[in-house]
Amino acid sequence: MNKILLLLLSVTLFSCANQQYPSGGPVDSEPPKIKEASIPTGTTNFADDEITFTFDEYMNKSTVQTAVFISPSVGNKYKLLWSGKEMTLRFLKDLKPNVTYVVTIGASAGDYRAGNKMLSSYRLAFSTGDQIDSARIKGQAFFASDFKPAAGALVLAYNLADTTKPDPEKSEANYITQVGKDGSFELTYLAPGKYRVFVLDDQVKNERWDVNQESIGIGENEFLEAGYSQSSVPVWFLEKSDKQAPMIQGVVQESQVLLRLTFDEILNLPVSKPRFLLKKESGDSIRTGEILPSFTSPEQVYLPIDSLGTGTFTLIQKGFRDLRMNESVGDTFTFSIVEAVKREKQLRVQSPSDTSSTLLSTDSLKMLFASPVKLDSVRFYTKPTKSQVTKGKKIKVQMSGESGIIQTVFPETRWIEKSTVKGLVFAGQDTVSFQFNTFDPDETGTILGTLESVGQNFPVYLSLYSITRSKQLGSVKTSGSAFKIENLQAGRYLVNGYQDLNGNNKWDGGSVFPWSPAEPKYSVTDTLRVRARWSVEDVVVKKW
Prior knowledge:
The chain is mainly beta. The chain has two helices and 39 strands. 4% of the residues lie in helices and 42% in strands. The protein starts with a helix and ends with a strand.
């Protein structure tokens, strides 16, 4: 009997010592919020050393700790004390006289039970003097890569009256808040004046920009005037700063006389002036030829060479530029070939390269050969599948060589529409087959529209994403405010774009030093449905 009582007592004590939320019940999906504070926002002549905030549920203390910001900064001269759902902010040092302070509890603060984040930042303003500042700045922030809200990112505002060259990498912001779930933010209770605003994805949680790790939004405005009303809501797009020159990531021997080089980013070939030095382990040099651009990957090029054999080799390259115009100044890459290339297939790569590829009936094919070939040594046949045409039909083609290695194949008239076209290439001892699908340009649709607020005389590049095929399509360069996109297969599309102010054919997010603006972005908020033989008209692509 005593043993049973002892067992029951032990279970009871264990249960009390490990209190947890009961399992089951409705799922908690409500965002936490602050019910009240010990002082109302707008309090003046504040002379106390603490403020208490009451949440409507138990909070995850660590997420709240990293979501508390005080502007102007008091450094680490404060601590947070907890009692149930109450959090007390205690200042450890006297506050400055006649200053408006803003305590922000950011949107990244989450509850204890389900990890739900606050819907938006909470702000409480008070003054140690008899007046309180009340100017404000509103904005929105999204990630440049996918247009998703930059929820939880920090908004850093620098008063240009204090510094003319604010540096988010080193200097402390005058005011800080966080971006909400929907991408919106608001800086309130600011001292009137001009501010430079950055939005930072602060992964390190140090309220500074770690250049090599964190994305930053620079915005289109050199400064914003903090006031009492705001006619427009500016947008910041976050991306990582690219100050690194392109570097070789891999070298593959495509054939005895051809290397395939893969870089760590997209190359800007039109402005690049590459130079190569290829050496054996003995120090002897190997002759290289003019680079050939890859037609399957913008991060790759092909380098014609003299035959290598086996051994260890060092390739030194310089002169390549990326889309940010960063130029390589001497990238060295060492690789080994352990087995000599034996007889190889002449046709190495073709584009399109898979059976699901779809071409317009007038599109051309690209082919890469292992070594230079003469046009008369290649025979090319195409015919649709037997299920489509009883007796298969030969299609006459033409070939034009950009080099001895790369060839372009196109039909004298057009491929057979709405067919699966099979091809055979005879080169040397090789016979290579492939196939692709075609569609009729007469069965395509068109998008017609205008660009809103184009502004300066710079082109806008519009890109399309096919929702129907889950595929990113190429971009269309526009001039002026009107645009036309043709030869689209029936389906649903998303349209977005950017204005190319610096002419590098890529969206740029601006620069911190020297300051330069982010390029404007454009988009269509609705999905566009394209039908065959129809035009989708009066589409307005709006500036963010």
